[in-house]
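Let us practice reading a record.
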Amino acid sequence: MAPARAGSAPPAVKLSHVSKTFRLPHEHYHTLKERALHPFRRRTFDLLQAVDDVSVDIAQGEFFGVVGRNGSGKSTLLKCLAGIYDTDSGIVEVNGPLSPFIELGVGFNPDLTARDNVIINAILLGLSRRQAEGRFDEIIAFAELEEFVDLKLKNYSSGMHVRLAFSVAIQVDADIVLIDEVLAVGDASFQQKCFDEFHRLKAAGRTIVFVTHDMSAVERFCDRAMLIESGRIVEIGEPASIARQYNHLNFRRMRQEAAEFGGPETLKGARVAEVISARFERDDGEPQFETLQGDPSCARMEVQFHADTVDPIFAIALQNERGNTAFGASTQLTYGPTGRFAAGTTAVVRVRFDNWLAPGRYRLFASVARDGARVDPYDARQDISSIIVHASRSGGGAADLPHAFEIDRL
């Protein structure tokens, strides 16, 4: 739930009927010569309504999620809030110092060392030089780059670059923090450090506006969330409810687009059954976002049937950060016939397994399919949830199976 508001305390952020439109020209001049040869050519434009009449109050100390499909306008809205874009209409009110973590590393100079870039960027983000120098060791330690302080940034990997940029960004002392998909890259261990930092910021009473595609992160951190589509608000509410609506909207549009373009045969039966949610859960039924290697794990999916169905096949798969399937399970292989499901029935399917996956982040895929030798999915949800597996060390494979060596001398 959102933090309780003091009777006289104004919201940290207040958006009133905010709109933003971009003009997209039909013709582009690529050279000065083209412009000189056609000085009076009439230019025409398309209008893109990126943000359309958005109104919302965000309470002080609230962790507020903004979700939507690609092109829905969520990042544009965040940039209007940060003052990067001027709005066409409406009012943006911000009560307190604001720090946008929107494009990490903007202003980094690839020809300078990490040491120089840290000091310069910390100053650009609002710290004094003395503060920047005083926090330098902490920034480098958080980024785990102590051995690369004097290396030029052009020799950094993308992961090292992100770690350094985020480490600088979190040192800014601001009451309101804007975060736009900063965890899209980076390994699982660093992502977990970022999640820990979110907890610290939240405990410190910071107001956080968080734009993301990761519904697990929305349910894990947010007090409330907002779903937007085509620049307009669809719904504002509890994170779990918004996550479900986002998944419904996302996959309904995918099916519509597939049908419009003569989509694959596997989508023809999509109305028979629908995966309405899927997640990892603990023994008490609460959502689970991280686990220790070796502990029992459970993946849970809910499937709603819109027509009478006999022996549907339920399946899950876990995909690692390299895009490889590290684990898969199907009732067709290990359970057998699943029985009859009448129209209107909702099935709750749990897959329990001993988790010996290698440390890292795993994305959950869930599907329900027609029974038969040929796999014909009614519905398949990709990247619907995720979990981080922690371990003290890894054997280097997709899984670290329990094992023992035997060595004999002959």
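A brief commentary: The mean pLDDT is 82.
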